[in-house]
UniProtKB/TrEMBL annotation:
Residues 1-20 form the signal peptide. Pfam families: C2-set_2 (PF08205), fn3 (PF00041), I-set (PF07679), Ig_3 (PF13927). One of its GO terms (biological process) is anatomical structure morphogenesis. The chain crosses the membrane at residues 1047-1071. This is Nephrin. PROSITE patterns: FN3, IG_LIKE, IG_MHC. One of its GO terms (cellular component) is plasma membrane. Residues 1085-1094, 1102-1124, 1274-1284 have a biased composition (Polar residues). Residues 24-121, 126-234, 242-331, 336-432, 440-523, 534-632, 639-728, 733-820, 827-926 form the Ig-like domain. It is a single-pass type I membrane protein. Keywords: Disulfide bond, Glycoprotein, Immunoglobulin domain, Membrane, Repeat, Signal, Transmembrane, Transmembrane helix.
Length: 1302
């Protein structure tokens, strides 16, 4: 039935269409479109009578019916359905878009499906263009006629581009390039193309600098902006022929003329290198080029040697097979540079002399002409020879006979001239005519006279006449010596000046006069006689090695002396007086005509003469001068020790831990000693802390095992000796371990032993204490073998406790050890509020504590309801025993998970061998705490009260405390929460001075608060603050030290201030009275008392003579500082009134105690010192004690100033090293010639030093030169000063050390 209906409906529709229905169709069909890559394309599609749905299809892929294409955001369908426009818009086109697109309309009703297709073509320009291997605008070097292939590639274009080549601006024929097109896969269905074009070039020099350009043409590129790249050719080829400018061959130039030769070459790549050569030797290779042009300019000044020289220029580059050349030959004219003459310069009358004249090289050759004394000499010949340096050399000879007639010289001129250059040179030659000089004579020394060595001697030799003047020479014993020659018009003088010495004795001084006319010198001679002392003195010792008991001879030999020297012996500045025959003398021949001297001194050698110095003096009587030589005797002996005690052994004491030093003073001769140390007769081995340095032993840290007897054995080549010293090491005590607990029966004697190790150690170093007090009752102490034994007789339980053994020997820390004395007794329970009972919550843990004292050890047993508790057998009951001290034990019963039936009393049994005791402890349910007990005040200050208490039972829970306090007389109450919770004391702060307070406290836990303590405490804060307490203690110190109280000082200062004020009023009254008197005087009258000043000034007396210095008190007081604790009392003195008889001194203030050791440099301790009382041993009073001490000394020094006045300052101490201009006396020489200082009861002997002897005494720091002592200056004029200058003479006198004048 339904099928028939459908057939009927279809027939009706078909019939309707046939009767005039219009179907859908394309009014605008899509057309083929081309678009550049990255551009925008629009494919049009317009449908009329639209019935179905429109979509686009790309290469068979439907893009959908939506305006936005899903997955391809670059695609969109634009238009509207009402107008039937469905255009496809594609932006940023890529090669993926190169495809066939179809606009499709779906069927709808009677509308059939329709479709129309179009092609979208995407074109892409080349991505790049390059000439392979050559960047754009690069230069390619290529040899001439060498084939060059250029390949141009355009990359990844669609469709393939066209490549065109250009040479410069000229397009190359299309047949020349070879083109290749290659497909390039691009990952899609559309292909890109690479296009290659290759050309081959055979470059010539004309291609140099030419450009070759490759151009890619493509429809995607604008024709006016094609893609191109280019390169430039640099064709290498040889340069052109060189050319020389600046000189033409055959041309002549003159010597000294500036010549400039220019070589040029054109063409060539690279440009030509130009080099100049002179006679095949390179002379210049500096050239410059521009483009393909090169130039080398060679500049020089023409010389003789340039005549005929060939100058060549060579041009070449890398393409040259051989250099190209151009050359010229120079012709140079030059006159001779010089004319020289040679031959004899002197001669006698009648001699024939030949003179030669020679010219330097010349071109053309020079001619020579002669002139003698102004007259030409004709008929001379010229000889010419070619010079290797160019040109010719001309020479000529002239013979001359010296005429008679008294002439002194002849002048010969030689002319050399170059005719072509008109240049002439002249050379002059002079000939001296010779005559002999007169006989010489000597002045300055008289024959057979004597001269002292060391004097300056001058002698002159004089010769007259002769031509030339004579040459004078001096000789000493045929050896020429220098001299000073002076020439005058007709004579010459030669002088010699010298310091006479011993070599001049019997020396022959000769003067010789010569000139060219003499054949044999003319001679004059003098023989000298000289007095001289010996140069040196030598002392010989026989035998060379001296030992005590021998006989020694000291022989003194002096060198030559004229007259012979006199020898004498000295020791310690005193002439040696020996027995007859002990000193012998002799003389002998010496150098330079003098005599030697010898003397022998015989000595008996003893050990005590070691180190004594003997001096031999050689004295020349004529000169009054001496030469000395010293010999120090060297006596060899075995070592000896200095500083040894007359009896017993030397002892060194050191404290352990400190540095120790043991040293011996040993000496011997030879002084090279070897040492060997031993300790207690055993060899001693040094260690890191024990350093042995010869005769010294240094211990960096001394130990007690270092104690003992140290021996030092000293040895030299003469034998050995030894010495001993005992090292005593003191060290702090150390108590040896021993019995810490002593247990005895009651009424039995108890013995406590304390053994210690210390040095020193004796009974007095031990002490026994119990509870801080000495043990006396029923006790005795004994000492033996380093142990102290305390015996307590009939010991009782009262004697139980801890005894302290104290060992103190004053070295290091005090040693202490405790010994506990126990008396055997049965246990005794210790019950305190906190453990008297216990409490716990149901299901929680409970702790019961049982504490007892007894000896020996106590054991505990717990029971409940008469039933013993077996603890530690299960986890429910656990017990633990702790030993609190030697006498006290504690047992703790822990009950886990408390149940209801666990509450109730528990019995604790304490047992030992002496018996047992029982104690009941009740376990309760947790509750409020009990109040604290035994609350008391433990400390009070002016603003705080500190209390302490014993905790009560805490109710089985943690508890805390609250303190309440109030000021008596008020109802205001304050509370303090105690922190931390377990504290048993608390300070209450912020209280009022001297006020009574009432204090209560109670405990609390989480279940509530306890009752307050039974009895509140009352306490009053201190009535004085710390500053008031400080002042009070200060007053006590003042009274204790006998000084004035501060109240008295303040009263005195106030009284002084009132007096000053009164004085000022009096002065003002006097001034007003005087002024009124002046006004009442007649104007013509002279004023009386004109010597009085209108101003009142106060003067201080001089510190030296108590006279007014003229400096006003006001200026002085501005410079002074006072410590008078108030205004200074001033006394006004009217000018012209009677001079004050005394001075006024400020109270002297000495420095505080901490600076008492400091004094001004150069000052001495004042003799006005006083023993002070010891400062109160309270650390808080240190500053007050200093202040009090200053006040006391202030008043004391003030009293000195009032009673004794002010002493003038003594002169300053003298520096013995200073130099004073007024010194007149020389000190005795140091060393053996020094005299001991006079005074102090010392005696001395007058030492007579040897005559004319200067002694230098050597010390370890070098020679000591005698120095003049300073002259003690007179007392300097004293000036107003505030400080005394100490001086030895002032000792025993009162001096003001820091006083100030008012």
């Amino acid at each position: 039935m339904s099928s028939a209906v459908y057939v009927l409906l279809f027939a009706l529709l078909t019939a309707g269409g046939c009767s005039g229905l219009v179907t859908q169709s394309f009014s605008v069909s899509p057309n083929n479109v081309s678009v550049h890559e990255g551009g925008e394309a629009l494919l049009q599609c317009q449908v009329s009578n639209l019935g179905g749905q429109v979509q686009w299809v790309k290469d068979g892929l439907a893009l959908g019916y939506d305006a936005s294409i899903a997955g391809i955001p670059r695609y969109s369908m634009i238009g509207d359905r009402s107008s039937g426009v469905f255009n496809l818009r594609i932006i940023n086109a890529s090669l993926d878009d190169d495809a066939e697109f179809e606009c499709q309309v779906s069927p709808e009703g009677l509308h059939k499906a329709i479709r129309a297709a179009a092609r979208l073509t995407v074109i892409a320009p080349p991505t790049g263009l390059e000439i392979v291997g050559h960047p754009t605008n690069s230069k390619i070097e290529v040899n001439e006629n060498q084939a060059l292939t250029l390949e141009c590639v355009a990359y990844k274009a669609k469709p393939p581009p066209t490549i065109v080549w250009y040479r410069g601006d000229t397009k190359l024929p299309d047949k020349d390039p070879k083109v290749t097109v290659t497909e390039v896969p691009d990952g899609g269905h559309v292909k890109r193309f690479d296009v290659k074009s290759r050309i081959t070039v055979n470059p010539t020099k004309s291609d140099d600098y030419s450009e070759y350009k490759c151009e890619a043409r493509h429809e995607a590129l604008a024709r006016e902006y094609p893609l191109n790249t280019k390169v430039q050719l640099s064709v290498l080829y040889p340069p052109g022929e060189p050319h020389i400018d600046g000189y033409t061959e055959g041309e002549t130039i003159r010597r000294g003329q500036h010549v400039e030769l220019t070589c040029r070459s054109r063409g060539g790549n690279p440009p030509a290198q130009l080099v100049w050569y002179r006679n095949d030797v390179q002379v210049n290779m500096m050239y410059h080029s521009k483009g393909r042009y090169s130039e080398n300019i060679y500049k020089f000044v023409a010389k003789d040697s340039d005549n005929g020289a060939r100058f060549r220029c060579e041009a070449s580059n890398v393409r040259s097979v051989k250099p190209l050349k151009a050359e010229v030959q120079l012709t140079v004219y030059f006159a001779p540079a010089q004319v020289t003459t040679s031959g004899p310069t002197e001669g006698k009358v009648g001699d024939t002399l030949q003179i030669t004249c020679t010219t330097a090289n010349s071109n053309p050759p020079a001619e020579i002409k002669w002139v003698v004394n102004g007259k030409k000499r004709p008929n001379t010949t010229n000889n010419r020879t070619e010079s290797p340096e160019g040109g010719w050399v001309t020479s000529s000879n002239l013979n001359i006979t010296i005429p008679a007639g008294g002439q002194k010289s002849l002048t010969v001129l030689c002319h050399g001239s170059n005719q072509h250059l008109s240049e002439n040179l002249v050379s002059t030659h002079s000939i001296n005519i010779l005559y002999p000089p007169g006989e010489p004579f000597i002045t300055g020394y008289v024959s057979d006279s004597s001269v002292a060595a060391g004097t300056t001697q001058k002698m002159a030799c004089i010769s007259s006449g002769g031509h030339p003047l004579a040459t004078l020479s001096w000789y000493k014993n045929d050896k020429k010596i220098p001299c000073i020659t002076k020439e005058m018009d007709k004579s010459v003088t030669a002088e010699i000046t010298f310091v006479v010495n011993q070599t001049d004795n019997e020396a022959r001084y000769r003067c010789e006069a010569t000139n060219s006319a003499t054949e044999v010198p003319l001679i004059e001679t003098r023989i000298m006689h000289v007095y001289y002392k010996p140069e040196h003195v030598v002392i010989r010792q026989d035998p060379p090695k001296l030992k005590p008991g021998q006989k020694a001879n000291l022989t003194c030999d002096s060198s030559a002396s004229n007259p012979p020297a006199t020898l004498s012996w000295w020791r310690a500045g005193i002439p040696v007086s020996a027995e007859p025959g002990a000193i012998t003398f002799s003389n002998g021949p010496g150098l330079y005509g003098g005599k030697t001297s010898s003397s022998t001194l015989s000595l008996n050698v003893e050990a005590d003469v070691d180190g004594l110095t003997y001096i031999c003096q050689a004295h020349n009587a004529e000169l009054g001068e001496s030469v000395n030589q010293a010999l120090t005797l060297n006596i060899v002996y075995k070592p000896v020790f200095d500083g040894e005690p007359s009896s017993g052994m030397r002892q060194v004491t050191v404290i352990e831990g400190e540095q120790g030093h043991i040293s011996f003073s040993a000496r011997g001769n030879p002084p090279e000693l070897t040492f060997m140390w031993s300790l207690d007769n055993k060899p001693y081995k040094p260690s890191a802390r024990a350093l042995v340095e010869g005769a010294s032993l240094n211990l960096s840290t001394v130990r007690r095992e270092d104690a003992g007897v140290y021996s030092l054995h000293a040895t030299n080549s003469e034998g050995s000796s030894s010495s001993k010293v005992q090292l005593v090491v003191k060290y702090s005590p150390k108590i040896a371990p021993g019995l810490s607990v002593v247990m005895v029966e009651e009424s039995e004697n108890a013995t406590l032993t304390c053994k210690a190790d210390a040095e020193p150690l004796s009974q007095e170093h031990f002490s026994w204490k119990r509870g801080g007090a000495n043990v006396k009752e029923r006790a005795s102490v004994s000492f033996a073998n380093g142990s102290s034994v305390l015996k307590i007789h009939a010991a009782t339980k009262k004697d139980m406790g801890q005894y302290e053994c104290i060992v103190n020997n004053g070295i290091g820390a005090v040693a202490k050890a405790n010994v506990t004395l126990l008396i055997k007794h049965k246990p005794e329970f210790v019950v305190t509020p906190d453990i008297a009972k216990s409490a716990a919550k149901d299901g929680k843990e409970a702790r019961l504590v049982c504490r007892a004292k007894g000896a020996p050890q106590i054991n505990f047993q717990w029971s409940k309801n008469k039933k013993q508790i077996n603890a530690n057998t299960s986890e429910r009951y656990i017990t633990a025993v702790n030993k609190l001290d030697e006498l006290t034990y504690e047992s703790t019963l822990v009950i886990k998970s408390v149940k209801y039936n666990d509450f109730g009393p528990y019995e604790c049994t304490a047992r030992n061998i002496m018996g047992f005791e029982n104690h009941n402890i009740k376990l309760e349910v947790t509750s409020k705490p009990d109040p604290p007990v035994s609350m008391s005040v433990v400390n009070i200050t002016h603003n705080s009260i500190t209390i302490a208490w014993v905790p009560g039972f805490n109710g089985g829970l943690p508890q805390s405390y609250i303190i309440q306090y109030r000021r008596i007389g008020t109802e205001t109450k304050n509370q303090v929460n105690v922190i931390p919770l377990n504290s048993t004391s608390q300070e209450i702060t912020g209280l009022m001075l001297g006020t009574e307070y009432e204090i209560l406290m109670w405990a609390k836990n989480e279940l509530g608060e306890s009752q307050p303590v039974r009895n509140a405490v009352r306490s009053t804060t201190l009535r004085e603050s710390p500053s008031a307490e400080h002042e009070r203690r200060l007053q006590e110190v003042l009274r204790e030290q006998g000084a004035l109280p501060r109240l008295v000082i303040t009263a005195v200062a106030s009284t002084a201030a009132v007096l000053v004020f009164v004085n000022i009023l009096v002065v003002l009254c006097v001034l007003r009275h005087r002024q009124s008197k002046k006004q009442r005087k007649p104007s013509g009258a002279s004023e009386q008392g004109s010597n009085k000043s209108g101003n009142i000034e106060m003067y201080a007396p001089s510190s030296f003579n108590e006279t007014v210095t003229g400096e006003t008190l006001s200026s002085i007081s501005e410079k002074s500082e006072t410590y008078s604790n108030g205004e200074a009392v001033e006394e006004f003195i009217e000018q012209g009134s009677k001079r004050a008889a005394s001075t006024y001194l400020i109270d002297q203030v000495e420095p505080p105690a901490q600076y008492a050791g400091y004094m001004h440099p150069g000052s001495r301790q004042s003799t006005l010192t006083r023993q002070h009382k010891p400062v109160v041993p309270n650390q808080e009073l240190d500053q007050e004690a200093v202040y009090v001490d200053s006040l006391r000394r202030n008043a004391y020094n003030h009293s000195i100033g009032e009673h004794k006045g002010y002493h003038p300052a003594p002169p300053p101490e003298l520096d013995p090293s200073a130099y004073y201009p007024q010194e007149r006396y020389y000190p005795p020489p140091p060393g053996p010639f020094s005299r001991p200082a006079l005074g102090n009861g010392l005696t001395h002997r007058h030492v007579v030093p040897p005559p004319d002897v200067t002694m230098l005494v050597h010390t370890a720091n070098g020679p000591v030169v005698p120095r003049m002592p300073p002259k003690v200056p007179s007392t300097p004029t004293s000036h107003l000063t505030t400080f005394a200058q100490p001086h030895p003479a002032a000792e025993g006198r009162s001096l003001e050390t820091e006083g100030h004048l008012v």
